[in-house]
Please model this.
Amino acid sequence: AYRAAEQTVPIPEYHTTETNRTGRGKTQKITPTSTIQKMVDRSAKRAEGKGIGYDRWASMHNLKAWSKTFMYLQEHDLLSPDKLSAAVDAAGTEARDARSRYDAAAAKVTDKKAMLKAMDNYRNTDPVIKEYRMIRKEKDKQKFYAAHEADFIINDAAKHQLDKLGVPKQLPKRKDVVAEIQSLISEKNECYNDYREKSDRLHELMTMQRNYQMAIQPQQPKHRRKHETEL
Model:
């Protein structure tokens, strides 16, 4: 049944922030824009059995990570825990809204591609259906149907899909649908780029919030509790 349908060339689709094509056609990954890394919980790592060498590295790593975090928060007036938390919440809302727009755009592309495929299948098998209707003798019709059963199955599935998608009986031109799909793919890629930007922003703020909590969280109460236990 599948072989009876004409194979069409797929419409290229890609995300511009995910990949970058080089001159030789290979795919080159784009590194994240954020340079602020998470600070390491040195106490937890020591409890896991990490040695003094790792602890020294973690100390320098945390110093650099906190330095970049502090400079950014100071520059953007986010040193207040409340302001930083509000910024994280706002970034989360923006990222979720951007994801919703991307999902909606992706759904449009999927539906339009399904429509194009159904149109192709219907048009490719329609001549067989018309030829079948021209046959007068029932015996010849049965013989013809048995020889072209795959075409009838594909044609019925295509009509069902077109009805499901609300396509009018007067099918649009294929080139118009292809142009519409390409336009929707461009819109989808723009939505994806916007989502990735806002998602990266959210993760960057969450990283800085975690670093802030690790650096600012007072350690003295733990020592007091230890002394109280010893007393």
Q: What stands out?
A: Confidence is low (pLDDT under 50) at residues 17-33, 219-231. The CA atoms of residues 123 and 155 lie 8 Å apart.
